[in-house]
Amino acid sequence: MQKTLIKYFKSLGIEVYTNTKARGHQGFFLKNRIDISKNTKEERIIPTLLHEFAHYIHAKIEPEMVKTGGSLKTLFDLSTYQLIDLSTVQKELLQVTSFVDENSHLLKLKTHKEQMKNKIKTLETEIKKDYPNFMRSKKFREFDKYIKKSKAKYLLKYDRVKFISPFLRHI
């Protein structure tokens, strides 16, 4: 099936390479060329080929897609259907993605985030047992006084973590 699909793509004038590193995750399409990563599992090659072929079709419908990123309005020809708006199409595409791609739920990331939050809370309560005035949001002067006179004073200079908020750039 895979060879037949590749032969069909080549008959359309698309170059297909299945033994590359591929710039994308599993595959990549650009200017009539499809690269499939050599690290892609055998059962994922055909879905990846079809996905990249969809990019080829989109490039044929909307030639400026590479520069502009493309638009759903052009892809789904929403100008002829006044009843359907762009937000409805976006919602449905997100639902399809969630249904098809188990990684789109970010389950591993969310569980890891929760574990880190819980670990931070337990460490904070442990610190508050000895130092009830401790607050994570403010500089802890008692600790700074102690550490400046100890052998661990280099931690103040080299091991400090700063969080800079993305919007107002607060440290």
Write a brief structural summary.
By secondary structure, this protein is mainly alpha-helical.
What does this structure look like?
The protein is 53% helix and 8% strand. The chain contains 8 helices and 3 strands. Strands 1-3-2 form a 3-stranded mixed sheet. By secondary structure, it is mainly alpha-helical. A hairpin with a 3-residue loop joins β2 and β3.
Structural class: mainly alpha
Strands ordered across the widest β-sheet = 1-3-2
Number of helices: 8
- How many extended strands? 3
Indicate how many domains the architecture comprises: 3
Give the quaternary arrangement of the chains: single chain
N-to-C order of helices and strands: HEEEHHHHHHH
What is the general shape?
A: elongated
Biggest beta sheet summary: 3 strands, mixed
Strand content: 5-15%
End-to-end separation: 56 Å
Which regions are unreliable across 5 or more consecutive residues at pLDDT < 50? none
Ordered list of secondary-structure elements with their pairings:
Blueprint: H1 2-11, E1 15-20, E2 27-29, E3 33-37, H2 42-61, H3 65-68, H4 72-75, H5 86-100, H6 107-130, H7 141-148, H8 154-158
Parallel strand pairs: 1-3
Antiparallel strand pairs: 2-3
